[in-house]
Amino acid sequence: MAFLHISLALLLTSIGVNAVVLFTLENRCDKTIWPGIQASAGQPQLMDGGLELKPQQSRNVTAPKGWSGRIWGRTGCKFNVYGDGTCTTGDCGTGLYCNGASGELPASLAEFTLDSPLDFYDVSLSDGFNLPISIFPYGDSGICPSIRCDTNLNPNCPPNLHVRGDDGEIVACKSACTAFQTPEYCCTGPYQNPNRCKPTRYTQYFKRLCPTSYTYAYDDPASTYTCRDTNYLIAFC
């Protein structure tokens, strides 16, 4: 009977482990950042959608199998003891906890659709860039590709894409779609097909420095990666 109890406990533990995916969020920047998390419609919100990470700090966030959503970094945030406040980039408009709200553009995104039946993941700069962000699968015996966007694109951002903070520093780099709102840059209207919507000098700037990232609506399908039964490290900077 004791053996039966032990076997049942091991089975339940195994089911519990396999029922979740672990996201490890790590701040490699020299300043505090505030990651935001937005779940897709119908999916549970993780960590109420927001947390704080001091330099070199990491936090684990668990997501159920089948979860989908996006993770990004917010910078220049000022929150009071109640979590009320705003951020210079990536602000979700609800304070520390985004609670389902999206981040203000431009923002570098780590996007996931888990167990569908594979995991699909990408780093998207199609809405612009604010922080270096990379995805490293781990626990998969090294067979799944990493996506590195660990270069700061802000210093050499094309001038007409600049976003400046209160001190005049370049804090983010808009996408051409965000900056100009025209069909050829947003892949809308007559440009809403891959034969007409092509890379531009702006998307090529992002692609040259972060070649494995997704940079516009019809970017190379190779910019989306797949894996199975793994956990993910999301590194900022």
TrEMBL record:
Which cysteines does the record link by disulfide bonds? Answer: 29-237, 77-87, 92-98, 144-227, 149-210, 157-173, 177-186, 187-197
Q: Name one Pfam family in it.
A: Thaumatin
Q: Which domain of life is it from?
A: Eukaryota
Q: Which UniProt keywords apply?
A: Disulfide bond, Signal
> Which residue positions does the secretion signal occupy?
1-19
SMART domains on file: THN (SM00205)
- Gene3D superfamilies, sorted: Thaumatin (2.60.110.10)
Q: Which CDD domains match?
A: TLP-PA
Q: Does the keyword Signal apply?
A: yes
* Family affiliation: Belongs to the thaumatin family.
Please identify the protein, giving its name as recorded. Thaumatin-like protein
**What species does this protein belong to?**
Centaurea solstitialis
